[in-house]
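Minutes, project check-in
Item: structure for the 110-residue chain
Input as provided by the requester:
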Amino acid sequence: MFFIQGDKAHFLQIGSKTGIIQLAQPVDRETNEQIRVTIVATDNGTPALSGSTILKVLITDANDNPPTFTNLAQHQANNPVMIKEGKASHVMHPQNKMVGDFAASEQYWT
């Protein structure tokens, strides 16, 4: 018989007879970078014996959050920006919950 222990066990489910582990609910990299639980296996012998191991699941990111800009009010159509040719004179600051390959960076207007 198999079961899962740990404070993040609710993210996973395990087949009590097969030991097959699956997600029990969606996960999001921005709120959980990893799920670390203990997997326990017991037998039906007399006396019953058991063993355990640590399972660490690393969550990768998905492109699920669009970037936003903290200083967007400065860039509204009724607020024109004067930019000198050849100069990076105005910077927009994106805020993005994404990490890794999907993270936003500063945008420079020239």
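Outcome recorded: The chain has two domains: 2-58, 68-109.
No further action items on this chain.
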